[in-house]
Amino acid sequence: MPNPVIRFRIDFSQDSNVGPGKIELLEAIQSSGSLSQAARDIGMSYRRAWQLMESLNAAFMEPLTIASVGGKGGGGVQITKFGAILMKSYRALEADIAKTAANHLHAVIPNVAGSRAAKSKAPRRPLARKSKAQHWSKTQR
Asked: CA triplet 34, 22, 78: central angle to 5 degrees?
């Protein structure tokens, strides 16, 4: 039986937050050593990846990444020790939350449509969708 997937964001302050997208970007940077390659690896535009990296570095007193300028050996981005601590802490919290959710939702999970236990029950009829014309005529009354 599958466990629910928990996605969460931590708001440290008004302009300082971390969620699954930023953590995934940091992990991709750590893996590739390049912001452009990290963006490609996770299917994100370079511009968006740059904006997220800049917002992460501005959100904390210590930088999470350090970029080096290109040249003969080429440029790159490295994750700082603080960046590694943030990634590790976020993933540990994510694992703890997933365990807690599984414990609290154990009676709900078997009833989720698409689960093996729910598939053994009679199939549910899909909801009929109204056409735009039907919706439009009702709103004009």
From this structure: 30
Q: What percentage of residues in the chain have a pLDDT greater than 70? A: 76
* CATH number of the domain to which 97 belongs: 1.10.10.10
Q: CB of 114 within 8 A of CB of 124? A: no
Residue 109 DSSP class: G
Q: What is the pTM of this model?
A: 0.74
Residue pLDDT, tens place only, 6-44:
899 999 998 899 999 999 999 999 999 999 999 999 999
Say if residue 137's pLDDT is above 90: no
Q: Any bridge partners for residue 118, and if so which? A: none
Long-range own/partner contacts, residues 73-76 (CB < 8 A, 24 or more apart) = 75/34, 76/33, 76/34
| Within-domain flag for 79 | yes
Residue 28's contacts (CB-CB under 8 Å, 6 or more residues apart) are: 37, 38, 39, 41, 42
Tokens of 56: 């992460």
